[in-house]
User: Fold this.
Amino acid sequence: MTPLAEMRRCCRSYDNGRIVALNDASLVVGRGEFVSITGPSGCGKSTLLDILCGLEEPTSGEVFFDGQPVRGRAAWARLRAARIGFVFQSFHLIASLTVAENVELAMLSQSRSARQRRDRVAELLDLLGLARRPAQLPMELSGGERQRVAIARALANRPEMVVADEPTGSLDSASSAQIIDLLEGLQRSEGIAVVIVTHDRGIAARCDRRVEMIDGCIVRDTQPAPERPKGMPA
Ligand SMILES: Nc1ncnc2c1ncn2[C@@H]1O[C@H](COP(=O)(O)OP(=O)(O)O)[C@@H](O)[C@H]1O
Ligand SMILES: [Mg+2]
Assistant:
């Protein structure tokens, strides 16, 4: 699998080294891979995800995207705006903007005409089952609908990777299942790499790769079994 995002020997500490949130973590996410990150609360999952997409800087170690090292806030901001989508547990929608405006906002940093933005918003709302709600405000929606708006926003610029930090953590089980179906569908149909932090073992089991963390360290990285050529006995 072609590497897309890679962390090499990343550490992150806080409080003058008294708190080690991430301890020598290395991880390669391939193009189109569907990866879960699991582990107990406080073990460094969010820190790992934030470093993987440059929201946090590692104390030591390096992060690569598409084969190039990425350094500095400006480079990360450009890269994220164009090539990485985010989904958070608490949605992070802008309360005063409508559904359509929340999605369109993500495109303002890219050079696109108003017409192109409108068309893309319509396409995404359709894809996410929100076509009838473009003018609603986030507070008028259910949790599952809000998270679908957040996913539409994450996809606005056709990212190569979507990272999701406990995206179903505030949702009931039916909405959670719908969100995971959506993310899985994107990975399968669009070839987008999806990295999900989750507490939910059922969700992790659906991913083709499972990374487990304890105390800031990656302790397991279960790859899918290699595909057997047709006709070979199991
Ligand atoms: N900004 C921060 N300042 C100090 N400690 C932090 C900060 N962010 C995270 N931590 C600590 O780092 C550890 C890992 O946190 P986090 O990555 O959020 O874990 P998880 O997402 O697995 O629950 C925890 O002990 C947490 O308290
Ligand atoms: Mg977390």
Observations:
- The mean pLDDT is 92.
